[in-house]
Amino acid sequence: MRRVIEDNGRFNWQLAVTGNDVVASFHYPGDKSIYYSTERIANRLRDPSEFGLLPLEVIERYHRKSQTDTPMGVLARKVRAAVHDDASEVPA
Question: 11 to each of 26, 33, 54, 79, 90, how far by Cα in Å?
Fold first, then answer.
């Protein structure tokens, strides 16, 4: 399940959790997007996207790029809670 932590509107930065992965993304009009993610995949895109990051690295990049007023600690707590919630929903 995808849980949006913070969304700054269309064609702006978004911070989300999908399963155990933390993703910061920016979607330009058209097809171009930038991703910072904990997901471990090869970056086949010709843009500044980065994969295989630590959760705090994703949050830091989001915080810096989006220029959000939300403190890093608040974002980190929200991400941690979302990851924990997703983990608790997995059937035993």
Answer: 7, 9, 25, 22, 32
Q: Are 68 and 6 in contact (CB under 8 A)?
A: yes
> Which of 7-21, 45-59, 61-75 is the most confident on average?
61-75
Question: Token digits for 46?
Answer: 């010709």
Pick from 11-15, 73-77, 85-89: least confident: 85-89
User: What is the phi/psi pair of residue 39, to 5°?
Assistant: -60, 135
End-to-end Cα separation, the chain, in angstroms: 17
Which residues are within 8 A (CB) of 23 and not within 5 positions of it... i.e. 6 or more apart?
Answer: 15, 16, 17, 35, 36, 37, 38, 39, 58
Asked if residue 61 lies in contact with residue 68, where contact means CB atoms within 8 angstroms, the answer is no
